[in-house]
Design brief:
This protein has about 55 residues and is mainly α. It has one domain (about 1-55). Helix content is about 80%, strand content about 0%. It has three helices and no strands. It has helices at about 1-10, 10-30, 35-55. The radius of gyration is 13 Å and the shape is elongated. Keywords: Membrane, Transmembrane, Transmembrane helix.
Length: about 55
């Protein structure tokens, strides 16, 4: 069962990257630069993927 959860959700770092990406995007969405929210999520996910690749 542990392998199933690891496959489905990844590890703690993967969940942290996804959560932080969503939080950053929500922050941008509720700021004066809301039009940039569509750009913020892909950039955060690419940066998160680079971080996960190194670890």
């Amino acid at each position: 069962m542990q392998g199933f959860f690891k496959t489905l959700f990844g590890d703690k770092r993967t969940l942290a990257v996804a959560g932080l990406s969503i939080l950053v995007t929500l922050g941008v969405l509720h700021s004066p630069a809301a039009s940039m929210a569509g750009l913020a999520l892909p950039l955060c996910l690419v940066a998160g993927a680079a971080y996960l690749a190194k670890h």
